[in-house]
Amino acid sequence: MTYFNLFSNIMVTKGASRILISDLQRNVSELYSLEFYEVIEELKNKSIESILENYDAESRKFIYEYIELLLEKEYGFISEGDWDRNFPPISYEYHEPNEISNIFIEINNLSVLETIKESVENLGVRHLVIYSHKKLSLKEFQDIELQFAGSALNGIEIFSPYHDDVDENFIHCLNQTAKRIYGLVFYGCAKDPIKFRDIFRFHVQFSSEDLKISSCGKVNLKYFNTNSRKVSEALHHNSCLHKKIGIDVNGNIKNCPLMAESFGNINNESLEDALAKPEFRKYWNLTKDKVEVCRDCEFRYICTDCRAFTENSHKNSEGLDISKPLKCGYDPYSGKWEAESSNPLKQKH
Amino acid sequence: MMILIISQNNEITTTEVIKVLISMGKKFIRVHEDEIFEIKVRQKRILLQSSRNSFFLDEITSVWFRRGGLTFRRLKYNHTAINLNMNETQHWLEDYVRKTLESKRHINKESNAHINKLLVLDKAKELGFDVPEYYLAENTHDVDLGNTIIKTINGNVMLEEIRKNSGGFMYTSVVDEHEEGDFFITFFQKKIEKDFEIRTFYLNGQCWSMAIFSQKDEQTQIDFRKYNKTNPNRNVPYTLPYYFEQKIRQLMKCFDLNCGSLDFIKKGDQYYFLEINPIGQFLGMSHTCNYSLEQKIAEYL
Amino acid sequence: MKKLYNEKNKLPLTFKYIEIFKTKNVSKIHSSMVYFVPSEKYQTEYLVREKPLKQLTKLL
Q1: pLDDT, average across residues A175-183
Q2: Are B207 and B259 in contact (CB under 8 A)?
Q3: CA distances from B84 to A244, B38, B78 (A)
Q4: C33 interface with A at CB cutoff 8 Å
Q5: Each residue of B165-175: pLDDT tens digit?
Q6: Can you tell me the distance from the alpha carbon of B118 to that of B134, in angstroms, rounded to the nearest whole number?
Q7: DSSP state string for B137-168
Q8: Which residues of A touch C57 (CB under 8 A)?
Q9: CA end-to-end span of chain C
Q10: Confidence (pTM)
């Protein structure tokens, strides 16, 4: 008797119409039919021979093919006599020693960064995403870098408006002094000033869109990430808001700059104080499993949630908004993505 | 409480453990490989001082030795006899400091950070581990070609600047052809057709293991350290049988090691012991298997 | 092998199977390279500059 052992870092997420198989070691996710799910479940409970017994010759072919596929992709292995009990399941607990993992801040001028610098260091913030309304000069980019020199920050991403000074030379100069900056996005750019070449320390992008901060919250394939850290966070916590602080253009400290509720202002309170308010973390453990529609979606653990823009249709007993994100065009019940513009409701934002 | 971490500036593992220590509110001192300490005395207490750090010997409650080492400034004297005498005096003071630190609660020690592979194999055999047959030889006369591998006798497989602008790795390799003439004593071992390899991280009696399936990938078949970045080996958590972990405890105790990585091969129902690495990499395994070993280390210190 | 390396004395057979890798800066810079930054809090000059493992914002 032979048995199929699924490797513990292969995660199968069942959606209403399909399943997603995520290889959390090689960081790849693929879609399969619900039928495949049934086969995988059977393989967990019965020997391969006893499964085949129950199918006719025609169907047996398909079972073989499924097993071949699983072996070819190295999703599992075959053992004799019994499943190999020495392979335990992986614990998908999320470990993050630092209090805050990222801050998303909306700024009009750089002085604000000086105000929060110390808190950023105390909280062990790993990433800082800056959305600037104002055009930034070369010196201002360098100042941002300098502000956080020697800090515990792992990386900085900056969204800022495009302006004529931003040419190939500008980017090359910035490349000389950039240390923590890993990404630059220049929005409102009619024509890319430089051809794309991945030759800088950071990723640089030019977007013709006149990005507003309210442009955030999009849900689509390009924002899906398959890796065990992201997935373990999504399994236990809110995949966007957990350990995040948002600061809006007026200095209000929120879960996200686009959410309404404020927990203080940086001009008279520290980030630590705002964080200490019990209400601050109320969304942190709202997983996709608790969100309407998302709970039936096969992408729920590789997707990043949005609580700022939702369909505002459901609240749970604690008053938390558990509606599906507004900017998600995927319907897990039909397995189809709708074109974003077709839904009139979604045009509001 | 004060934890002394003896490490290197570029040790990422140390930084990860430090993040956990900070979150636990545990105080620590991080020593880099290039720090030179002076031994001083203040109010009858021994003080160790470098350009970066300053601490009293008696305030240290635990020590984590993670590569690098403690270096002391040795004063030199003009008069030969005086120099000899002062050399000895300084030696004993340094020895006192080192041994006192090693007697405290610790993870690894500078004095046994490197062990003799040959002695380890002999001891493992003695304790009843299955060890693939090994021997030393100066020529390939008795070598079963294609079924034998060679390994370095020392722990370090890397050579810097072996050629101009190039370094070299001496990975475990299969001996597939005869070599004319004699060579320097080389370590030979029977090649086992493995099902998979196992890497175990050991800390204070506990084991965490990971199975490494590298057979399908020719690049990593013999030595999984030749990482294949585009299609990595399948690495998954593994649990060794209890009796086997007991034997591991015995072996580690024989070499006075309370922490280290061990490598095994699984073939059919048998586990074959390969080697111990007292200060090996474990971050990769910690992340892949979600064992949070950085946390375990921080908790122990 | 001792000839290969211009050595007077014999070398172990392991030197025959050395794998050479270039250390001179293959000098290609790109955004996915591993970079290090200094950090006072963690007392190192080798804090890994990392891109986040998940999307932190979804603006584009």
Answers
A1: 94
A2: no
A3: 62, 19, 10
A4: yes
A5: 888 899 899 99
A6: 9
A7: ESSSTT--TTSEEEE-SSS--EEEEEETTEEE
A8: 104, 129, 131, 157, 159, 216
A9: 58
A10: 0.91
d(CA A269, CA A49) in angstroms, rounded, equals 66
Contact A207 C55 (CB under 8 A): no
C46 and A CB contact within 8 Å: no
Which of A209-218, B62-71, B149-158, C24-33 shows the lowest per-residue confidence on average (mean pLDDT)? C24-33
CB contacts of A9 in chain B (<8 Å) are 235-236, 288
Output the CA torsion A238→A241→A242→A243 (10° steps): 180
Contacts of C26 in chain B (CB under 8 A): none
> Average pLDDT, whole number, for chain B?
92
Question: Which run of H or E residues covers position C38?
Answer: strand C35-39
Instruction: Tell me what pLDDT residue A192 has.
Output: 86
Q: Does C27 touch chain A (CB under 8 A)?
A: no
Among the listed ranges A310-319, B118-127, B217-226, which one has the minimum average pLDDT value?
Answer: B217-226
Residue in chain B nearest A94 by alpha carbon: B290
Residue showing tokens 């280390």: B297
Question: Could you write out the DSSP letters of every residue in A30-44?
Answer: EEE-HHHHHHHHHHH
* Chain A residue numbers touching C33 (CB-CB < 8 A): 201
- Structure-token pair, residue A129: 């995403």
Q: In this structure, what token pair is assigned to residue B64?
A: 């984590």
**Chains in touch with A (≥3 Cβ pairs < 8 A):** B, C
Three-class SS state of A119: helix
pLDDT at A349 > cutoff 70: no
Tell whether C3 lies on the interface with A, counting CB pairs under 8 A. no
Give per-residue pLDDT as tens, A132-148.
999 999 999 999 999 99
- Picking from C60, C53, C4, the residue whose alpha carbon sits closest to that of residue A187 is C60
Identify all chain A residues contacting B22, using CB atoms and an 8 Å cutoff.
Answer: 97, 124
Whether C58 and chain A come into contact, CB under 8 Å, resolves to yes
ipTM score: 0.90
Domains of chain B: 3-112 (3.40.50), 117-130+193-301 (3.30.470.20), 133-191 (no CATH)
Q: Cβ separation of C49 and A155 shorter than 8 Å?
A: yes
The more confidently predicted of residues A281 and A196 is: A281
- Residue A347 scores a pLDDT above 50: no
Round to whole Å and give the CA distance between A241 and B180: 67
The residues on B that touch A, with CB distances below 8 Å, are 19-20, 22-23, 211, 213, 216, 231-232, 234-241, 287-290, 292, 295
CB of C8 within 8 Å of a chain B CB? The answer is no
Nearest to A182 among C40, C51, C53 (CB): C51
Is the Cβ–Cβ distance between A128 and C52 less than 8 Å?
A: no
Average pLDDT over all residues of chain C: 87
